[in-house]
Amino acid sequence: MKKLFSHTQEKHICNQYKNGLSQVEISKIYNCSNATISNLLKRNAVKIRSRENNRRQININVDYFENIDSHEKAYILGYMIADGNIGKNLNAIKFTCKKEDMEILEKLKEELGSEHKISIQKYGKNSFKPDAEKAVFVFSSKKMKEDLNNLGIFPNKTKTVCVPKIDDVFVNSLILGIFDGDGCFYIDERRAKRVELSITCNNFVCDYIKSIFEEKFNAKVGEQRRMGSSSKVKSIRISSYVSVLRIMNWLYKDSSIFLKRKREKYEYFLKYIINRAGFDKKTYNKCLKLGFLNKKILIKERLNER
Questions:
Q1: How many Å apart are CA 41 and CA 38, to the nearest integer?
Q2: pLDDT of the chain, 306 residues: tens digit per residue
């Protein structure tokens, strides 16, 4: 008899069950019977929950997305747009990242008040690096799925997602979440610290972010269609020192949640820019707090305004 699931899939199914999904929900995901999932769990020595315990939901703040009224909520919403996923036929909500960036999922989990576990999985054969590992944070909530739908986030979001309408004061944190999921901050060490800030997303989201950067920072934003990608996906790019530093400072201004690896790269570049201009430590600390510009006179003008 042909085996239905690979070893990796069996391990993933066991983790899904341990993280709170029911046998019925899992069987629908894999288009098989409940008995198949039950036998798989027993074969892998997974303790089966009683009917009473199976109905008990693992704790999570199901009203979290009902009202986006904080920078942290805006950030997670942005991260959902970039690296999140909503089940089409089920109420499963999933966040993913590289294994080495798992700390960001821990922050999301804490902010959501969740008791669900974060699992480690391989990307699989359809990925560019099938043997690479990713961290996955998945849970099930009908209420949260409905609230995300109301905000314009649906299954197959690459083709359907639109930018949620939230208070303007939280927009920087929304874009930071998108950047941490689908963005890149590149520093070319060989070419006098040449920099590039880029975000790859669907056309509608990219156009929205581009308009913000152009209107708010007068930035020159380039566009590039990804080779082999759907026509609904493109990249936006900024390479001006001044524009990049202004934008990055604005992105990191408010949210207490961010991807540590990208934040550290930005702070390294900011330190390089200020040290190259020969600032003393006191001025450097003020500039780090304010956060921008690569010319001494412009930074001094900004400090004088304060």
A1: 5
A2: 455 788 888 888 888 888 777 888 788 778 888 889 999 999 999 988 766 555 445 678 889 999 999 999 999 999 999 988 898 878 889 999 999 999 999 999 999 999 888 988 888 776 667 778 999 998 888 899 999 999 988 887 666 677 889 999 999 999 999 999 999 998 876 665 678 999 998 888 999 999 999 999 999 999 887 665 456 888 999 988 778 888 998 999 999 999 999 999 888 887 776 666 555 556 556 555 554 444 444 444 444 444
What stretch of H or E contains 38? helix 34-43
Q: Where are the alpha helices (DSSP H) in 71-163?
A: 71-83, 103-111, 142-150, 157-160
How many domains does one find in the chain? 2
The reply to whether 155 falls in a domain is no
CATH number, domain containing residue 279: 3.10.28
Residue 275 lies in a domain: yes
Cα gap 148→66, rounded to integer Å = 8
295: phi then psi, degrees, rounded to nearest 5: -115, 130
Task: Determine, yes or no, domain membership for 197.
Answer: yes
Cβ neighbours, 10 Å, residue 46: 15
The verdict on residue 128 lying in a domain is no
Domain containing 221 equals 178-305
Q: Which amino acid is at 230?
A: S
The partner residues of 136 in beta bridges, in order of sequence, read: 96, 119
Cα torsion 206, 207, 210, 211: sign: negative
Q: What angle do CA 43, 48, 54 make, to 5 degrees?
A: 145
